Amino acid sequence: MPTYRPGPVSLILAGLVALFLLLPLLAVIPVSLTPTRMLAMPSGELSLRHYRAMIEDPRWINSILLSIRIGVVSSAFSTVLALCFSLGVWMFQPRFTAALVGFVLLPMVVPPVVSAITLYFLLTSISGVSSFFGYDTWLGVAMAHAVMTVPFATVLILVSLSQLDRRIDLAARGLGATVWERATRIIMPNIKFGIITAALLSFVLSWEEIGVTLFITSVNAITLPRLMWMGLRDNIDPAIAALSVILIIITVLVLVVRSVVVRLRGAP
């Protein structure tokens, strides 16, 4: 089977586009090495003071740990909700499937500020009943993030289910399998990569969520994006550039490891 190899013009154009997209990210690196107390390009002298300040400042460490905790909880909650809904729609095929799917996808199409205001009033109302789960609590933020990420997880799981042969489920039902056995032993093992992808995407969306977080937090639940926003709004802290460089390095390492693993699996 003949394979297509791009010509030199295509490679040059692709390289120019990649360079154009990467230049803003590369510009953060020298900014993070500036010796000044403001975001600026270094003028000859380089310094790691902002990396040291970020490590020594407990606010950054606490916000990172809090964002991880919120991301894990919201990812697990949204993935479970999306999985239950998708399995129910796929297995039972209710009459109003399209309407149900559209209702679940509403947070994806509604403007974020509308969702943020709605969640703000909801969590403030809950705060009057319980201080553990409500406004400006990490659990309240996790549930709010789950509401925003459920549509994305649902789409991924529904796509995985659409590629599954329905005759497998029919055969299991014909052999006397219960609904629970069909779901856990037949369907879920065949869509496990879709479930994992939905969980990872939900975590990433929760990790970077800032719009809703600004409405439902104040001084107690300070996530990493909110702390970065506060740093840019109040004093333009160069430690934000240092943190951005660290996140870029982590992302590149993850992509490199994934490419190596995929290549090793494809090797004979």
Automatic annotation (TrEMBL):
UniProt membrane topology term: Multi-pass membrane protein
**Which Pfam families does this one have?**
BPD_transp_1
Keywords from the UniProt entry: Cell inner membrane, Cell membrane, Membrane, Transmembrane, Transmembrane helix, Transport
Q: Superkingdom of the source?
A: Bacteria
Please give the start and end residues of each transmembrane region.
64-92, 99-123, 138-159, 193-219, 239-261
Where does the record say this protein resides? Cell inner membrane; Cell membrane
InterPro entries from the UniProt entry: MetI-like (IPR000515), MetI-like_sf (IPR035906)
Q: Does the keyword Cell inner membrane apply?
A: yes
Q: Name one GO biological process term.
A: transmembrane transport
Pull one GO CC term from this UniProt entry. Answer: plasma membrane
Q: Where is the ABC transmembrane type-1 domain?
A: 64-258
User: To which protein family does this belong?
Assistant: Belongs to the binding-protein-dependent transport system permease family.
Q: What is this protein called?
A: Polyamine ABC transporter permease
Classification of source organism: Bacteria, Pseudomonadati, Pseudomonadota, Alphaproteobacteria, Hyphomicrobiales
